[in-house]
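Quick one, tokens below. Sequence please?
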């Protein structure tokens, strides 16, 4: 988005590369990209030593603008977000999924869906509109049986996606790095040009809005001698120009924007959806590994929150009130305790209220989130109530163990990340929208009395005559 009419139009679409560990995501991103950014391709020494991606890596692929995206000369830039596949890094993936327009789910064609591929699919359903499935490592299939093995896995994937919003999405077979990581660079990848054509056909104009407060998710921070400190990330809302002041809430400081770059090209302006490096006056980059920067005083640091939420269907087990979950809000993950509540039974079928919470109404306390398989509905079934009525909307009060900084109405994901990594279960429990944050440390006294949640009680006894 360079200023001035002469610059050709560059449309940026953020593509997430997600999947199970060792499905070849980084090799695929490398095969697709033309320009690597600061964090691309496992540059971090720890990543190279362990041979896995530990952080979000970014690189970009530029291609001519496809006809469905409007007339006129211009370029389509795919920013590839290479998310780590290692189970313990799911916090990073959740942070990455919030800045993604289009998702590539990478599947090892010799293994099919694995635990983290399923979790990535869940995150995609929450945070993403479109998906392309990439069956990688087809070079490992014997040539005579390759085509039939690809067709078999394609059918399997179509069945898996049947009941998701990605039903019928494109499935492309590739070998991003034939012969594996040790193979010579002269080996050409298979199927990558076809994949680029599919990505172009799936590209759409994401709705971008330069108005509103500037907010950027920073994922890397480093200093350049004599220049200042550079923060790279993706703009989540609003826009930023040279000379603007930006706040780093985690450090409680405000800094002036000295210069900006997008993939090594200097720019004077960037807006929502753009991937940008912002150079500000010097501070110690170790203090801000990742986090948010924003228009001064536009973010809130909260100790508790009210969210509207839905249970993730693949999570096994009930969601109990008073249970602790890992709560991911923006790029932060903290422990939090939950209390579930619903409308009063008479209001169960009321229309869903999007993005607002009504403090005037009375709400009913729930021992657990009400769903078809929850205990309270089981009890009702036993009492011969054939049709269990479930509320159309449910809420939770989240109490964080340490305060979090986030914008209003942001995505919230609750998970049980302490579940055994090797257990074949989905660790993501619920997702929702943050409706109301409580900034006062003493919210128990100042804020909670406004929340009218009641409990149903009944007593049983025998009358002696």
């Amino acid at each position: 988005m360079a200023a001035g009419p002469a610059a050709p139009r560059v449309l940026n679409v953020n593509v997430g590369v997600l999947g199970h560990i060792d499905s070849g995501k980084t090799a695929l991103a490398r095969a697709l990209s033309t320009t690597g950014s600061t964090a691309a391709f496992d540059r971090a020494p720890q990543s190279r030593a362990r041979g896995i991606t530990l952080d979000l890596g970014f690189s970009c692929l530029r291609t001519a603008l496809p006809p469905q995206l409007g007339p006129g000369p211009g370029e389509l830039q795919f920013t590839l977000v290479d998310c780590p596949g290692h189970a313990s890094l799911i916090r990073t993936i959740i942070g990455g999924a919030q800045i993604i327009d289009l998702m590539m789910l990478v599947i090892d064609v010799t293994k099919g869906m694995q635990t983290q591929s399923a979790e990535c699919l869940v995150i995609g359903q929450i945070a993403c509109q479109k998906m392309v499935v990439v069956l990688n490592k087809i070079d490992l299939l014997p040539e005579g049986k390759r085509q039939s093995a690809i067709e078999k896995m394609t059918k399997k994937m179509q069945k898996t996606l049947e009941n998701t919003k990605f039903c019928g999405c494109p499935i492309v077979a590739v070998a991003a790095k034939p012969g594996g990581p040790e193979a010579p660079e002269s080996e050409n990848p298979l199927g990558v040009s076809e994949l680029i054509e599919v990505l172009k056909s799936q590209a759409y104009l994401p709705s971008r809005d330069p108005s509103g407060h500037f907010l950027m998710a920073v994922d890397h921070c480093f200093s350049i001698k004599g220049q200042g400190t550079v923060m790279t990330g993706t703009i989540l809302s609003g826009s930023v120009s040279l000379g603007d002041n930006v706040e780093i809430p985690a450090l409680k400081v405000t800094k002036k924007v000295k210069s900006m770059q997008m993939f090594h090209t200097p720019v004077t302006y960037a807006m929502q959806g753009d991937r940008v490096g912002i150079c500000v006056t010097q501070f110690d980059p170790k203090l801000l590994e990742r986090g948010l920067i924003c228009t001064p005083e536009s973010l809130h640091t909260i100790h508790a929150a009210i969210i509207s939420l839905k249970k993730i269907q693949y999570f096994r087990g009930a969601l109990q009130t008073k249970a602790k979950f890992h709560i991911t809000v923006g790029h932060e993950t903290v422990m939090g305790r939950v209390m579930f509540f619903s409308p009063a039974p008479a209001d169960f079928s009321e229309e869903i209220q999007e993005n607002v919470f009504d403090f005037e109404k009375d709400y009913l306390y729930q021992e657990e989130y009400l769903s078809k398989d929850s205990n309270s509905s089981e009890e009702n079934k036993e009492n011969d109530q054939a049709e269990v009525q479930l509320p159309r909307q449910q809420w939770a009060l989240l109490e964080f163990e340490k305060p979090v900084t986030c914008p209003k109405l942001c995505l919230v994901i609750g998970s049980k990340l302490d579940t055994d990594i090797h257990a074949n279960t989905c660790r993501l429990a619920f997702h929702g929208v943050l409706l109301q944050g409580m900034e006062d440390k003493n919210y128990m006294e100042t804020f909670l009395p406004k929340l009218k949640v009641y409990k149903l009680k009944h007593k049983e006894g025998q009358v002696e005559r």
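Residues 83 and 194 are 22 Å apart (CA to CA). The first helix runs from residue 25 to 32.
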